[in-house]
């Protein structure tokens, strides 16, 4: 089922999400719905807070990036099969020389800005079967993970912008929170009641 994506301004996007256990109600169905919602919105990742649930869960399918001719062969190879579920994820280490990449977010339609992040990360997470993994990611795979991870920490990519950039996009963000935006997918705005 395709769920509405929570828009900028909703308090759920600012909550530090809570860990979940194997017995979280209808977890398999929730993961399926999140993937459907992400694909419907042409996203490469979506976190549970973006569908109104403050839990430490996100899904990523960065394989569409593997088609991008401008990326390095290494990045394209890493992204080709980067399709995973992340439960109770943690970043153990971030390192390397910071780099800039243009990011957007399904909760903040029509806003894209350059964001600085570290290129190499070591992560721990549970998959959908609650098996523990420790992995190292770099380049674009690390960036997509960091973006989704920020969501479960109550952080948005716009928080990482300079104060000047924040002032420039302030009106756009206000309009999104008021529902004065057209997106190609279902959205839920802060002043909108659930179920609408």
Automatic annotation (TrEMBL):
In short, the EC number is 3.5.1.88
Q: Name one GO molecular function term.
A: peptide deformylase activity
UniProt keyword Ion transport present = no
Which cofactor is essential here? Fe(2+)
Q: What does this protein do?
A: Removes the formyl group from the N-terminal Met of newly synthesized proteins. Requires at least a dipeptide for an efficient rate of reaction. N-terminal L-methionine is a prerequisite for activity but the enzyme has broad specificity at other positions.
EC class name: hydrolase
Q: Which reaction does it catalyse?
A: N-terminal N-formyl-L-methionyl-[peptide] + H2O = N-terminal L-methionyl-[peptide] + formate
NCBIfam families in alphabetical order: pept_deformyl (TIGR00079), PRK00150.1-3 (NF001159)
As to how many cofactors bind and how, the note says: Binds 1 Fe(2+) ion.
Checking CDD domains in the record gives: Pep_deformylase (cd00487)
| Protein's UniProt name | Peptide deformylase
Q: Does the keyword Metal-binding apply?
A: yes
Q: Which residues form the active site?
A: 148
The scientific name of the source species is Polaribacter marinaquae
Which Gene3D superfamilies does the record cross-reference, listed alphabetically? Peptide deformylase
Domain of life, per lineage? Bacteria
What HAMAP family does the annotation carry? Pep_deformylase
PANTHER family for this protein: PEPTIDE DEFORMYLASE (PTHR10458)
Pfam families in alphabetical order: Pep_deformylase (PF01327)
Q: Where is Fe cation bound in this sequence?
A: 105, 147, 151
Family indicated by similarity? Belongs to the polypeptide deformylase family.
Q: Which key words are in the record?
A: Hydrolase, Iron, Metal-binding, Protein biosynthesis
């Amino acid at each position: 089922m395709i769920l509405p994506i929570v828009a900028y301004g909703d308090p759920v996007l600012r909550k530090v999400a809570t860990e979940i256990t194997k017995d979280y109600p209808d977890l398999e169905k929730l993961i399926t719905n999140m993937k459907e919602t992400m694909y419907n919105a042409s996203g490469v990742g979506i976190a549970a807070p973006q569908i109104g649930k403050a839990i430490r869960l996100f899904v990523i399918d960065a394989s569409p990036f593997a088609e991008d001719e401008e990326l390095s062969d290494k990045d394209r190879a890493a992204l080709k099969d980067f399709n995973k579920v992340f439960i109770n994820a943690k970043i153990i280490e971030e390192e390397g020389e910071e780099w800039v990449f243009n990011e957007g977010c399904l909760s903040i339609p029509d806003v894209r800005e350059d964001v600085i992040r570290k290129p190499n990360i070591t992560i721990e997470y549970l998959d959908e079967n609650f098996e523990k993994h420790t992995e190292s990611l770099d380049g674009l795979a690390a960036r997509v993970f960091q973006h989704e991870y920020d969501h479960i920490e109550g952080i948005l990519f716009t928080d990482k912008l300079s104060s000047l950039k924040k002032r420039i996009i302030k009106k756009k963000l206000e309009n999104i929170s008021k529902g004065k935006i057209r997106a190609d997918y279902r959205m839920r705005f802060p002043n909108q009641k659930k179920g609408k």
